[in-house]
Amino acid sequence: MQKKKKDGGTRYKGHRKDGRRGKGMHSLTLKPRLLRRRCAGPPDSDTVQKVMIITDPFVVQSGMVMMITSRLDEAKIEFEVFKDVVPDPPIDKVVAGVKAVMDYKPEAIVAVGGGSAIDSAKAIREFASRVGGLDNIALIAVPTTSGTGSEVTSFSVISDPQEQRKYPLVSESLLPTEAILDAELTRSVPPAITADTGMDVFTHAMEAYVSTQSTEFSAALSEKAIEICGTFLLRAYLDGNDTHARKKMHIASCLAGLSFNAASLGINHSLAHQLGAHFHIAHGRANAMLLPHIIEYNSMITKNSRSQKTIPAQVEKYCTIARLLGVQNFNTVTTIRALVAWVQFMLREMDIPLSISQTGKCTRAEYFKAIPDMAEAAFRMPAPRPIRDSHPKTISWKSTKDSGKKIRPDCTAPTVQSGFFVSESSNIQ
To answer: How much is the pTM?
Structure first.
């Protein structure tokens, strides 16, 4: 049951007269006037008339996209839907999206879907700007999974299936204009994807927390995301209709995204990208499978570790994570072991494979044959690191509007060694 509001928006039963939600109710609050403001393009533009929606076939087939299109219809805003997004966005799909944007020339892009849809939209907008000169296109990200945090990061990952490579794009110009978090959109996510994306959130938070680029601000975001995952991830997996758990994991995903956007990631992700590129293992699942081994490697916990005179800083951070999860033990070694055991427990509970062989994606021979190539690619892959580190002075749109220029840094990242071995110059642990 719905009632028309004076400004042309729609208020659903269960909403209070002051516009706030009633208990247990939910809607995507995009009123026409609000939508126009959120889709605003350049500062001198009053309204937006054309919008491109970038999403995947499932969002369209499930009818989820109508939560967006209905609001656009109400606002009398013209739109077109690009629905060819696929997991691990390949270059050819990004090229097709760039062509669609250049032909349609929208004033705003609305990305609806998981990390692949948002990453695709970010890359499409970036290349449409660089190749087609279509600057000042607003990007609104509406995530439908709780995993990547891509709606609040300056990163996008695209893949080249022929070369079996994934390429991270890093630029502040990739950052969406606005993000809309709506946990109701995640309710239909199946348990397996809930598990994979949830462990992706946990890995983001943990890697950002132990990064040498971590700050008090990023650490606070990571700690909260880790705490939420420890309490609500398994709940969301076991009961997809647990709205509270879904909401908490949606928040955790965003918090973790904000954290690693500032502090960077590590070897867990550089290796996971290679597993995904070579054997088509879901990104979050690859992260989850690697995580226990990465914790052990970074912690340098061996049978002789008790004789160590000094404890690396990252080990103390891992112990803090264990404390946040409630598994801290009586000494450092046993605490790290307990943290590893907790991760493995979560994998078993959520039916995530603990080894490559359990995935069934490749034979033992195929896996070992690919190791040298994957290791080299992981080692050379630049760590996701804010581009501002190498471009300390960024010229904003406002400072250049008089000259008609918009200066953006190159869509590349500083070279950071990342792989099985971490160099002293690396920003990751």
So the answer is: 0.75
